[in-house]
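dumping this here before i forget
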Amino acid sequence: MNNETRLQRILSRATRTESGCLEYPGSRRPIAKLNGKVVNAARAVWFFTTGEMPNRKTCVCHRCDNVKCVNPDHLFLGSYSDNNTDAIRKERMRGVLPVSDVDWAKRDAQIANELGLHKTTVHGYRRRHGLRKAGTHTTAETAANI
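structure:
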């Protein structure tokens, strides 16, 4: 079976929404088979559409922010960092720090207390994004560039 036929098979199972999304049935994160392996349905559609299989460090992202969507026009490639930054910017990621509103010169425990988070959440976020602790340089300036 060629890629075009496999693509049509997936798309024929999808339901079109008012926003133009093609929602693939199943769980919140739908799956499909690709070369005998179970993969994310959007990743399979990307492969069948472009012939390019993204590596493990590359996400197939959704312009529409609908994880069930398999519309090829709504898909694009990005890194995990790109995808997370997009999620933060669109405020669709749970437990995310409001980066621009945080005074990064404060200690983790102070920030956590103000935001109602655990201090390890703040510490992990700071570490992953290269934000320095109080008493060092590059705080709000670094946060603005995320």
